[in-house]
User: What shape does this take?
Amino acid sequence: MKEIAVLLNPASGGGKSLHIRNKIEKYFNKNNIKYDLFVSKSESHLKELTQNKTTKYPVIIGVGGDTTFNIIVKEILRGGEKNTFGMIGTGSTNDFVRGLRIDKIRLACDVIKRGKTRKIDIGQLKSPGISEPLYFLAALSLGLGVTVKQYVDDFNRNFKIRLKSRLLKQTIPGTLGTFYSFTSNKLPIKLSIEYNNIKKECMVSGLAFLNTPFVAHGLKLIPEASPFDGKIDACIITTSAFFKTFIIGVTAYKAKHLKMKEVEIIRAQSIKIYPEHPVDIQADGFIFSGFKEFEISVAPKALNVLL
Assistant: This one.
């Protein structure tokens, strides 16, 4: 039996996975990498595929974006399997593989060929309202991370934009979504934060917990965030209007936002959040609703990955 199962999400990145399928197979065959490839039909099918293949293949390769990787990793952890996980990023953001410096297809394939592994931390949310941790690889956020994603998804669905241009599919609707989030009074959000024996109340427009320096297709929101340090990093944004938030977004590409008074970076073993009202959260592209209180931390060295 072959050791590697390649799970490919054809919907990732607007169909990018399918476009590079031949390139991946050509590389694997040329380098004598023994594998079986499986194409998912939906998110639920990808989940089923992962459940089935983790018991038969010691190495699982995901071809997709952060959401694809999230589905696969959840099933690996939930099943208690000791699989090694590899990533070929074809998503619309690719924030996690960018943080690991394997965001190019050739680089990711070279890593798989070498076969070297390293254990990484996995972000996790625990709450009295859920029976098991909610895991995330790249990022978990509330505020702008939720409202902007919802706006962008609705925008692209309503206007049926099928172009490859990131400007039309992400940047423009993302900017409009930020503006809408404030003018519709969805932001800021009042909450209490506890970490490192500190407790304070904040009015936040955005709160992101990262396991990688990057978010939203390359914003270097927390340059020191790492999946190897056993800690969780968070960026607190306390803007109350669109313009200042827009400036933070623009300057974050080069990490210049860190000098602004409306931005605070914290690092801790765990961070507890108590919103004034139930909030929605986004974890690696998935949105979950109605959290009254929760704790963010990491499961240290929980996943063996090809690096």
Q: What stands out?
A: The chain has eight helices and 18 strands. The mean pLDDT is 92. The first strand starts at residue 4 and ends at 8. The first helix runs from residue 16 to 30.
